[in-house]
Every structure is written in structure tokens, then in C-alpha cells.
Amino acid sequence: MLKKIFKHYDYSIIITIALLCTIGLVMVYSSSMITSITRYGQDSDFFYGKQKGWLIIAGFVFLATILFPYKLYQKLLPIAVLGTFGLLGLVFLMGHTAGGAQSWLKLAGASLQPAEFAKLTVILYLALVLGKRQEYINDIKRAFIGPIGLTMGIFIFVAIQPDLGTGLIILMIAVAIMLCSGISRKTFFKLILLGLVMLTIMGTIGVLTGQVTENRIGRFTGASDPFKYAQGEGYQLVNSYLAIGSGGLKGLGLGESVQKYGYLPESHTDFIMAVIAEELGFFGVFLVLGLLGFLIYRILTLAKRSKDPFASLICIGVATMLGIQAFINLGGLTGLIPITGVTLPFISYGGSSLLSLMIAMGIVVNISFFVNYQEKSSKKANNVVSYPNNANPDLS
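Below the sequence we write its predicted C-alpha cells.
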């Protein structure tokens, strides 16, 4: 029985996730070994040990999630929504600050970042609601006011922590799901116009309430001309350039990074790809990006194959989350966009990020089971032809 169940999972997704997590664990150790000693006064494997522990927990959660039918999340979603707002609210009451943002909660001795799980809540909520509203999906008032309201509520909670990077990821996930929900071209442009108006209003409110701080402006100036501000806002970006440039084609060798010796303060989180480029060169970067690209491609292919709107929109949301998060991380360390503190999926150090990603991947793999099973059952049904009295057809 178990053999029949497990043969329907998409193992290309599972293998890709395993490879990314393995590379991430190795690079967390390599990139954090100096920081662990000099900055935190710990053993060289301090962050490696913590990440390994999170990976073991996330692995068990992943296995449980792939066996849990994705349709049952429809019943659990109200609890997830209330829990998300509750945890985001607790952040302001008893959260602790790290990296300039009050985004973490201490629960059972572990630090959790509720905003990471909020992304998954938004994906499941929008997929369920818009999947059920296909009959009137082009009626913006009936189909989209509720989803927009919930998304904006979560975005505001996250953005004022302040964690604008994660907030923007949540917004872009919502936009992708809404635009792929089966709407017409006319509704598409109406939603885009509505989004631009809302962004303008939020930007104005941000300026008036002092959310546009000198530190945030400095991130833009640092990204625009990092060498001019090399001793200030452009410090990390300049050292990121040095790491990427010195790696060349083959890299300096695993563990041989120079920039991780205090020049890149967040070498195991935000700037871990710069260390990969320095130690493993172009080939290492190409491998990581290739695996991430392949994973996104497989998830989008699964979305296209699924006949259930709920499953299809979940896959679109998860693929968007991976793609946007990777783009923002890589854009920050290459100077394409300001640095936001967003981590690289599966690679950067971070327990909350890893756990939320593995839950999302577990849901996707569970969807692959149902899609593959339905397609195989459909092929069998199409190949079965019955004849009266068990007679063979006359082919003469």
C-alpha cells in the first residue's frame, strides 16, 4: 500500500530540496565559522549546529506535510489566519529586536519570526478564496476586496516591525496569485491600477508618519554608488563586490573566503551567496541558481497540470515566494536593489525561514501526489475498452 502511495510523489522536487539544504548547511558552516568565534565568542560550529538542528526538525515536518492531504488545509485556514495575526501582534508586545527590526518571538527557548509563516498563510488564504470564486472572479468587489484587505493587514503588521523586505514579498505573492486566478485582461488592468493607487497612498502615509528614515534612505544611496559611501552605507556592498570578483570561475576553494573575516557582517545570512561566489566561483553560483530555477519550474509545471484551482494557486504562490525572495536577496548583494535583509531560500542561516519553506514544499509535494495519481488514473480509464461477451474487436 505504502509503495503505491509513494510512487506518485514528484521526486525531482524532493531531491532538489535535499541538494539545496545540503549546500546551505555546508555554506552556513563555512561562512559563519569566523563570525561565531570573533563576534559571538562561540565555537566555530555554533551556527552550523543550530542550523543542523532546525534542518532535522524541518525534515520531520516536511515528511509529515507530504502525507497530509492539502485539501484539509481549507478547514484549518481560519485557525492559521487568527494565529498569524495573533503572533504578529505578540511581536509588538514581547518580541525582541535583531538587525534593527522587532520581528522575533522567544518561544520554548527558540527564536521564531512570525512574518515567515505569514507568507504561507497569505498563499493558502488567497488560493482557497479565489479558487472558490471562479464563477465571479472578474467582479473585483465580490472577489477581491476581502483578499486585498487581509493581505494589506498582514503587510502593515510586518512592515512596521520594520521588515519591509518580507512585507514586499507578501505583497508580490498576493499580486501573483490574484493575477493568475483566471481574471480577464480588463480586470487585470483594473487590479494593477488599484494596486498603484494603494502603493501611492501607503508611500505618502509612510513619509508623513516618519517611516522613511535616514537609515532606509541610506540603503538607496549605498546601492546607487557604494564606492562613494564605502565607509558607510556602501560598506557591505563593496565587500560583496570584492567577494564575487575574487571568486572568478572556480573560486578560492571551500572555506577559503577572505571577506567572511569580519568584512561581511552578515556573511551567513543576507550575503551568503557572496561567500559562495568567492569560495566556489561561477560554478557554485550557477549550481545554486540552477537548482532554485529548476525547483520553481517544476512547481509552476505542477500548477499548470493541476485541475484544482486551490492546488494550482498554492503552487503559483509558493513558486512566486521562492523566485521573489531569491531575486531580492541576490539583487541586494549585487547592488541592483537596496539591501533589505531578505535571506536566500534554503541556503541562508535561519530556522524560521527554513521551517516555513519546508512546510510550503511539503504541501507542494503532496499536491504532486494527487496530480500524478489523477493523471495516471485518467490514462488507465482511457485505455480500458470493454467488448460484449469478452470478444476481441474485428480489425479486418
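The CA atoms of residues 41 and 76 lie 43 Å apart.
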